[in-house]
Amino acid sequence: MSRLYYFKYAFFSFAAGCTTYFLVTGLFELDFDSPNAIWKWLGKSFFVGVVSGLILGILNAIFKYAPTKIFKQKP
């Protein structure tokens, strides 16, 4: 398996979960009278989910794909 597999697995699972969490928790503090607040809430939750997923996806791809090749101790 390649690094892309490990990246996609971590990225999609965490980004979807994180975005859903921020969408649901934002429902309780949202002012539905302002359309600008709704778009800001959607954008913020999507942005946080994608950025967090990118960071964890990259870390997952680095540390799970042949860690012995990356962090080889030289004699």
Give a concise summary:
The chain is 79% helix and 0% strand.
Write the SSE topology.
Elements lengths: L2 H25 L7 H30 L2 H4 L5
Helix pairs in contact: 1-2
- Please report which band the strand proportion falls in: under 5%, 5-15%, 15-25%, 25-35%, 35-45% or over 45%: under 5%
Q: In angstroms, what separates the terminal alpha carbons? A: 28 Å
**How many separate structural domains?**
1
User: Helix fraction?
Assistant: over 70%
Silhouette: rod-shaped
Radius of gyration over all CA atoms, rounded: 17 Å
Q: Specify the structural class.
A: mainly alpha
Helix and strand string, N-terminal first?
HHH
Mean pLDDT: 81
- Low-pLDDT parts are none
Oligomer: single chain
Extended strand count: 0
**Helix count from the secondary structure assignment:** 3
What does this structure look like?
It contains 3 helices and no strands. The model has no long low-confidence stretch (mean pLDDT 81). Helix 1 (3-27) packs antiparallel against helix 2. It is 79% helix and 0% strand. With 75 residues, it is mainly α. The radius of gyration is 17 Å and the shape is rod-shaped. The chain has one domain (3-70). The chain has helices spanning 3-27, 35-64, 67-70.
